[in-house]
């Protein structure tokens, strides 16, 4: 099956911070792939904006290098790259001053969708919104795209929301979480709400527990200084993982409409119970000798006294009729055994087994795999082939769609590609609303405040392992086990 490409309307997209890592690694290569797919009309234009004093030719050369480094070789067609680069312009601006804003305004068209992607440090988000308004770049068709982190606590998130709201309406603000742009995440909603098969079973009566894992094999690397002020709770749980939990736990919205979907997600966040200390495990990776892949966290962060967690596991409960009694286990960490992100929904055992071979019994598990190989499968029990009686074995019913949009799956759009095109369309379904962000911080802040008040130190865990021993006990004491972390 070939994916259907629906072109968007003409637009001017300004990538502020266009010389930075995110723009060069994700945003600009993603835009090229949308150009190659035919989704951009001929009139679409992309403007880079940054402090660097570059000529347009020099910036285009920089973009060409980014495409060579981050676009699959099979998609690097010289004629298409040349055509894409013709869409590209560049303006040097001073975010904190007046330089360049007049030139940027003159380069934009008044009669098309105008989007500004804030690919800059979070501390500049509010200032950028003020500059756009001050220099007359905000029009009724203007949209702004704001990267995470959106604040570092409830107070800062509220302050940033207030600053943005002073210059833009909520329907113009796109708080991006690239996890929501993944094909598998969107198919989770399709599996739930477009099929009668699962929805009657999607509750505490039939689901034993849910595991959400986001494991990374790399350490904090060059992000050490930033990460040490953030930690796994702020960097991953408060945004990415809560969004995944919401999609699993939310009630069916009345329609696949931006506010209808976000209303239901907000209800889930507000229904999250406080998490007691015994249901939280924090860890820091340490390097053993020899240590393949690098040093320990304290070295990577450049802070020998750091108490910041590079790993966290939590047992979370949603206090509503659908989910009372069903725990959600969340874990995420750096320098773990493998890079993998998945949601595993484990169903309860049948109330009575008619088979004698109970030793081989396994629960039904629906696994939604986000990376590295996107797909969905359902593990069910069947008879083991061959003579010798009724012996049971667990096998996966593969519902993977990783190859559905192309022979090898490479035609599935990257999350950033999809989300940027949604910005141009004006579709906010996969973006966080201001009250969602604040509700997530309202739940997260007391957890962080409690361990800071106690002076807790993260538990050490070996780089390349599955995390701290106490994270295993978090599951074992409930008679459950974490799924194996593997690629």
UniProtKB/TrEMBL annotation:
Q: Matching InterPro entries, A to Z? A: G6P_DH, G6P_DH_AS, G6P_DH_C, G6P_DH_NAD-bd, NAD(P)-bd_dom_sf
Q: Where is the Glucose-6-phosphate dehydrogenase NAD-binding domain?
A: 14-187
Q: Which reaction does it catalyse?
A: D-glucose 6-phosphate + NADP(+) = 6-phospho-D-glucono-1,5-lactone + NADPH + H(+)
Quick one: which residues bind substrate? 178, 182, 216, 235, 334
Its pathway, per UniProt, is: Carbohydrate degradation; pentose phosphate pathway; D-ribulose 5-phosphate from D-glucose 6-phosphate (oxidative stage): step 1/3
The gene from which this protein is expressed is: zwf
Establish whether keyword S-adenosyl-L-methionine is in the entry.
no
Identify one Gene Ontology CC term for this UniProt entry. Answer: cytosol
Q: Where is the Glucose-6-phosphate dehydrogenase C-terminal domain?
A: 189-483
EC number(s) of the enzyme?
Answer: 1.1.1.49
Its lineage opens with: Bacteria, Pseudomonadati, Pseudomonadota, Alphaproteobacteria, Rhodobacterales
What organism is listed for this UniProt entry?
Phaeovulum veldkampii DSM 11550
From the UniProt annotation, give the residues forming the signal peptide.
Answer: none
Q: What does this protein do?
A: Catalyzes the oxidation of glucose 6-phosphate to 6-phosphogluconolactone.
- Provide the family line: Belongs to the glucose-6-phosphate dehydrogenase family.
Q: Give the residues annotated as active site.
A: 240 (proton acceptor)
Binding-site residues for NADP(+), renumbered to this chain: 51, 94-95, 148
Keyword vocabulary terms for this entry: Carbohydrate metabolism, Glucose metabolism, NADP, Oxidoreductase
Q: What is this protein called?
A: Glucose-6-phosphate 1-dehydrogenase
Q: Does the keyword NADP apply?
A: yes
- GO function terms (MF aspect): glucose-6-phosphate dehydrogenase activity; NADP binding
Instruction: Enumerate the Pfam families for this protein.
Output: G6PD_C (PF02781), G6PD_N (PF00479)
Biological processes, Gene Ontology terms? glucose metabolic process; pentose-phosphate shunt, oxidative branch
